[in-house]
Amino acid sequence: MREPPIIDKADLSIEQFTIEMSNWLLENDTADLANAIEFALSAFMPYIQTQRMSLVRLTPDNRFEGALAVAAPGYKPVSLPAHGLYSPYLAQISKGEIIIAEGNMADIIQHDELLIKEMQGIIAHVVVPFRVKGRIWGGITASRYLEPIHWDKDYISRIRSFGQILASTYERYAYWEKLQHKNQQLELLSRHLMDNQENERRMLSRELHDNFSQRMALLTIKASRLSNTLITDSEKQSANILHNEIQGLAKDMQALSRSLHPAILEDLGLLTALKSECRRLSTIKDIDIQTLFDPLPALNKELSLNLYRILQETLNNVAKHAQASAVFVSLQYSDTDLHFQIIDDGIGCDLNLNQNNGSIGLISIRERAQLFNGTAVFNSPGDGGFIVDIMIPAIKEYYE
Q1: What are the tens digits of pLDDT across the range 222-271?
Q2: β-pair type (64-71, 99-102)
Q3: Which residues contact 43 (CB under 8 A, 6 or more apart)?
Q4: How far is CA 184 from the centre of its chain?
Q5: What are phi and psi of 391, to 5 degrees?
Q6: Span 40-67, pLDDT tens digits
């Protein structure tokens, strides 16, 4: 929260206070607005001589939920419902009607013992509704334990004006909070989908290794034996060709199995696995791949796997689309972040086209970085090439 303004009731009129506070609320970061509104509400109390105030929000189904509640030192804030509450007492707000009590609270609250209990000792009470964007948003409640008992009309007008400022600010905060919640849900969904994908890859890798690889090995042995039983050179040559093709297919299957579930990552660590993946592409595509890796602390399995998948996805894109002759891969570590870069010298990429249509590979890379509060930036220089730039903050939970 930004440094709050210095409020001195003797020096600032209520009009000046409202302007100062409104500007200050606008300057605050959205994440800090709940605390900022609470401060503003507390600072407003002396101007209208109250010891307790609350901001009450009206839900679309005409129920009320607490936004914020404050109290002067020595007094207890009212307990506000987190979810929609229906009350005939508060229902007057939805009609735009002001509730004013001067003296006996039971005159206006005869039906609700909880409210009466919370209002014990109060000698004056007011609920002022107000509109935001053309509809009744809710209201401000203000309570006095000390005189004066009478509510001045100017006070009520000022409460309404100040309430509209706080309500608009609160809506900004509530919208941001809703977005944060949705982003968290999307992140959990993304993590869940990636976990399922990894489980499926692991199962397929195991099936390839335990079943199909064994069967391919048996085929290789049979092809070799067949070659030994044949008599003519042409038959032997055909059998040898078949034998070599089966061996090549078996190697490809083993490579696919390793790609689906890189056991080398668990056995020898991230850097060795990254180098192995670079060698694999360099061998099959005749691309010169250079690497520069800093010594790393032990990363947790999830981060290591996602960095490996980022490299794998990027190199697959290079192999399919880049027409590159060279790739540079670097992984640098500092006290503040982990910096992962993959740069190729290929034909580049139309980033605008990818942003409009959505590249599944690039989206996957970005989502993997975001799982660790990181960023993924893609750049295609005008003279060609493509850069994948990953930054992961050095957070302790990412390290073993």
Answers
A1: 777 777 777 777 777 887 888 788 877 877 777 776 666 677 787 888 89
A2: unpaired
A3: 4, 7, 17, 21
A4: 5
A5: -125, 125
A6: 999 999 999 999 999 988 887 777 787 8
pLDDT category at 113 given cuts 50, 70, 90 is very low
For residues 374 and 391, the answer to whether their CB atoms sit within 8 Å is yes
**pTM, 2 dp:** 0.57
